[in-house]
Specification:
Number of helices: 3
Radius of gyration: 13 Å
Keywords: RNA-binding
InterPro entries: RNA-binding_CRM, RNA-binding_domain, RNA-binding_YhbY, YhbY-like_sf
CATH architecture: 2-Layer Sandwich
Number of domains: 1
CATH superfamily: YhbY-like
Strand content: 15-25%
Order of helices and strands: HEHEHEE
Distance between the termini: 13 Å
Protein name: Ribosome assembly RNA-binding protein YhbY
CATH topology: Translation Initiation Factor IF3
Organism: Oceanobacillus aidingensis
Shape: globular
Length: about 100
């Protein structure tokens, strides 16, 4: 689990990042979880955008992705989810 201080740090780090995944009307699927997991391994910190036509609640979507990828949900802002997972090979972010 991330502390509040770590979440605050990650929020500031994620400020300039653009969402690289979008969840649409089909919701979260196995393939998407795999791709997000690979992206987290490379980047550690990513944003996922939830489109207007997504029928599921953003908190449910965040929970599904986080459970599938074993990542931490840093924050949900509007329709954007910020995810963090410590990389095993590409560790770049130093948490406070």
């Amino acid at each position: 689990m991330l502390t509040n201080k770590q979440k605050q740090f990650l929020r500031s780090e994620s400020h300039h990042i653009k969402p690289i995944f979008q969840v649409g009307k089909d919701g979260v699927n196995e393939n998407m979880v795999t791709q997000i997991s690979e992206a987290l391994e490379k980047r550690e910190l990513i944003k996922v955008s939830i489109l207007q036509n997504c029928v599921e609640d953003k908190h449910v979507v965040a929970e599904q992705i986080s459970a599938g990828t074993e990542a931490e949900v840093v924050q949900i802002i509007g329709n954007t989810i910020i995810l963090y997972k410590e990389s095993t090979d590409h560790k770049e972010i130093k948490l406070p």
